[in-house]
């Protein structure tokens, strides 16, 4: 892989060691160009039939690209505005009853824990937590759903083995915000029923893009919120209209053509370098960083072969700000003693060295 050529696609890397894709990926120039081109056409030609047709075409191409990243069929992928929206759609669409239990881990992201707290407070669903690594063993007789991350946003650890064997009665919802695009992802192979992911992180798309994969076996067991116009099989049927039979019934009501165009352009920049190479380079650089930090005697959070590296620091927020001043973009994780670097294929050894030298 021509790593320098990939790096050159991202203007932010000209001056910064940008190690923050776990929040938002770097935007490639191609995304900016796709956006500008579409907006210019909309401004000069107006937004009528051709614009609407282009919107629908872009949505389907975006869906197909996301499906490829999930090893899935486009028919099973809904387009959302973010990971959290996919999570909310699953929690709201399952037939969970008061007294039913959802099992999760205590250090999941607020994008998952927030919707779970709402479910508990409004619908009497019990939310029980167990450590990430022990989730499979913690499933009890009233557990109706296990909801956890594919890759932990705190440590970079990978979902516990064993969840794939919970059977059809206890579906698993995976929060894939730090998974899809970062590491090779086979949604069906992970054994989950639902996989919610982000477009703005490891796929380098714009904020306001995301995906929800629904296992075919769960297609008819997840009620759609809506259906709004975009979700209907035949919108002209009005009150007699039925939701689209495919996952599109769960699409967000409005994803702009510009967002889809940027998402596709960003995806295609990465795809051109080969996804295996993209994943290998990113996880390899992350492992190198983790090794170097540990070699200095720092406490690195127990991680998997992923793209996140977290390590303890006495003053993480102050360190984040100081590093930002030096052009090194990482983040702290509020409520923890960790600093976290997100390492992508677009980074290089120079970024890693710059971070290490400035710590
Ligand atoms: C594990 C995890 N889940 C959910 C989210 C929320 O993502 P989104 O903004 O796509 O809803 C994040 C984002 O930082 C995350 O790391």
Q: What does the model show?
A:
The structure is a single chain. The chain is α/β, with parallel strands linked by helices and 359 residues long. The protein folds into two domains: 3-19 and 274-358, Aspartate Aminotransferase, domain 1 (Alpha-Beta Complex), CATH 3.90.1150.10; 32-270, Type I PLP-dependent aspartate aminotransferase-like (Major domain) (Aspartate Aminotransferase, domain 2), CATH 3.40.640. The chain has helices spanning 3-7, 29-45, 49-69, 83-93, 110-123, 135-138, 257-272, 275-295, 316-325, 349-358, and strands at residues 17-18, 77-80, 101-104, 126-129, 143-149, 172-175, 194-198, 210-214, 308-312, 328-329, 331-332, 338-342. The strands form three sheets. The protein has a seven-stranded mixed beta sheet, sandwiched between helices. The protein has a three-stranded antiparallel beta sheet with strand order 9-12-11, covered by helices on one side. The protein has a two-stranded parallel sheet with strand order 1-10. It is globular, with a radius of gyration of 21 Å. Bound molecules: pyridoxal-5'-phosphate.
